Amino acid sequence: FITDWMHGITCKLHHICIVFCIIISMLHAHHAVACSMHVLVLASVEIMGSQEQFKSRRAAACWHRITRFG
């Protein structure tokens, strides 16, 4: 139960993160490259599978970038 709950939170954070990345990219051109890379990496990991743990780490890293540079 706890794991499902945590997974739900992680997925929500991840989607919020991508939205923030897109908004910030529009505001700050230098973020565009980093966020494009972020999306590309996630896409490639999705294709390879076993992505859940990786996603949560990337989401956390992206969130950290946003709070630092945002």
Tell me the layout of helices and strands:
Blueprint: H1 2-27, H2 29-48, H3 52-69
Helix pairs in contact: 1-2, 1-3, 2-3
Keywords:
70 residues, 0% strand, single chain, mainly alpha, globular
How would you sum up this structure, described in words?
By secondary structure, the protein is mainly alpha-helical. It has a domain at 24-41 and 50-70. The protein is 91% helix and 0% strand. It has three helices and no strands. Helix 1 packs antiparallel against helix 2 and helix 1 (2-27) packs across helix 3. It is globular, with a radius of gyration of 12 Å.
Q: What is the assembly state of the chains in this entry?
A: single chain
Largest beta sheet, briefly?
A: none
Round the Cα radius of gyration to an integer and report it. 12 Å
N-end to C-end Cα span: 34 Å
Would you list the SSEs in sequence order as H and E?
HHH
Average pLDDT across residues?
A: 68
Spatial shape: globular
Number of strands: 0
Q: How much β-strand is present in the residues?
A: under 5%
- Specify the structural class: mainly alpha
Helix content: over 70%
Uncertain runs are none
Secondary structure tally, helices:
3
Describe what is shown at a glance:
With 70 residues, the chain is an all-alpha fold. The chain has helices at 2-27, 29-48, 52-69. It has a domain at 24-41 and 50-70.
